[in-house]
Structure formats: structure tokens, C-alpha cells
Amino acid sequence: MGKRDTRVAYINPIAAARAAGPIQQSGPSIRDYLSRPRPTWEEWKTMVSKKQGGSNTLAEWEKNMSDKFREDLKRDRERVLNKSKKKKKEKKRGKKRKRERSSSPSSSASSSSSSDSEQDSEAERREKRRKSKKTKKKRKRRHDYTSSDDESDKPSKSHSERRKKSKKHHKRKKRRDSDSSDND
């Protein structure tokens, strides 16, 4: 058996290209590119300004988006305002119910015929009376506490004794007044 022939034929690429002949051009040549029509300075400025202005579709899209955003804002504002109005109404109802509960049946009948401003003034008067009663009670308690401390120094009268005395004093006044009217 003999040896294999591993040799490859070498072809010079440049020589092969020359042998094939001139190449057919596909597309414009350099000469064509350089001699193409070019815009004037004014035409170029107008083209650039159009590009900087942006596309019409983009402007329309932005306008639509801003309109939608405004509508959404409007809806949200209305919803928030309605919620706050409802809360205010509920508070007013609650206050009216409290006033009606706290007032007596006779005063509620008379207040239902009167206006809201009269109801408010009545409620304020009641509140003032209640507060003044509270403060009087507090003062009395304080006085009782302070008087209980002083009991060791001097004897003080009990509440019932003081009351009896004031009743007697009142009766005496009535007698005097009635006596004086009889004498006239």
C-alpha cells in the first residue's frame, strides 16, 4: 500500500479575480454618493426645526394623557368632597341626637318648634348651668375638706344644723313681713 497524497492545490486569489473579469457593482458608487443632491441652508434649518418640534402623534398622546389625568383629578376631588360632606352631616346628626337625649321631653317639644339657633343657645345655657353646678360642688367639697382640718381648732356646725337655722331665719322674716302688713 502506498502513501496518501495530502497536498492541496494553491490558487492565488488576486490572479483568480483578474481572470474572472470586472465585478458587477451592486448599489451606488462613491462617485454617486458625492454627487448626490444636497439641501440648501434654509431647507436644512426647516428640517431640523421639524425634528426638534416632535411628532404630531406624540403631542396628541400627551394631550390625551393630560386630559385623562385632569378627569381623574376631578373625580378624586369630588369623591373626597362628598366624603367630607357626609362626615359633617353625620357629626351634625350625632350632635342633634345627643341634644335630644339630654333635653327633657317638654323642652324637646318646645325646641322642635324653635329654630336651630335657639336650640344652640338653649344647649349652651344648659351647659353653663351644669358647669356652674359642678364648680359649686367642687368649691363646697374643698371647703368641707378645709373645714374638717379646722375642726380640731374650733367646733363647726354640721350641714343639717346650718340648714335648720336658715329655715328658722326665713320663717321669722315671713312672720315679720306678715305682721307689718297686718299693722298697716
From TrEMBL:
Compositional bias annotation for Basic and acidic residues = 60-81
Biased-composition ranges for Low complexity?
103-116
Region of interest called Disordered, as start-end residue ranges on this chain: 46-184
State where composition is biased (Basic residues).
Answer: 82-100, 127-143, 160-175
Per the similarity annotation, which family is this?
Belongs to the FAM133 family.
**What's the protein called, per UniProt?**
Protein FAM133-like
* Lineage of the organism: Eukaryota, Metazoa, Echinodermata, Eleutherozoa, Asterozoa
